[in-house]
Amino acid sequence: MSSKVVNESSMFYMDFCPNCSNILHLDEYMGEVRHKCQVCPYFSPIKNVTLASRSFYKLKEIDSVLGGKAAWENVDSIDVVCNSCNHGRAYFLQVQTRSADEPMTVFYKCCNCGNRWRE
User: Fold this and answer.
1) What is the pTM of this model?
2) 3-state secondary structure 94-118
3) Residue 82, annotated ligand binder?
4) Alpha-helical regions (H) of the chain
5) How many C-beta neighbours within 10 Å does residue 37 have?
6) Window from 13-17, 64-68, 101-105 with minimum mean pLDDT
7) Is 111 marked as a binding-site residue?
8) What pLDDT digit, counting tens, does each position of 17-65 carry?
9) Which residues on neighbouring strands pair with residue 94, listed in sequence order?
10) Does pLDDT of 7 surpass 50?
11) Phi, psi torsion values for 31, nearest 5 degrees
């Protein structure tokens, strides 16, 4: 039998492989849910369990959040080194992304390669 570490506050537990002591992962094989070791061939079936998964929304592209491609049309450029191509100039755009008492976020776009980063 595999050993277990139990956290009673959340009823979360981890099973460990009795052969090599690595963490056992959940696996679904031919309609059966089981614990499976990813290092050695050990596996152990689990009865009365259903696997569920979460899906996440696709994050928006940064250009659409900033106002689309038109947001970069009338911006100024500044002397700053691109970390991708080492070009010495980039466009910049300041946006208030957090609360009003926090500083504005500066977004940069390299004039040479189009690499984007923020500060």
Assistant:
1) 0.44
2) EECCCCCCCCCEEEEEECCCCCEEE
3) yes
4) 62-66
5) 22
6) 64-68
7) no
8) 999 999 998 888 888 888 899 999 999 888 877 667 777 777 666 666 6
9) 106
10) no
11) 80, 0
| Residue where the block lists tokens 């996440």 | 56
How far apart CA 13 and CA 7 sit, in angstroms, is 6
Count of residues making up the chain: 119
Pairing of strands 77-79, 43-45: unpaired
Per-chain mean pLDDT for the chain = 80
SS3 category, 24: strand
Helix, coil or strand: residue 72: helix
76 burial type by CB count under 10 A (0-12 exposed, 13-18 middle, 19+ buried): exposed
The span from the CA of 112 to the CA of 119, in Å, is 19
Q: Has 37 been labeled as part of a binding site?
A: yes
Q: What is the DSSP secondary structure assignment for residue 59, as one 8-state letter?
A: P
Mean pLDDT of 71-95: 89
Residue with tokens 């928006």: 60
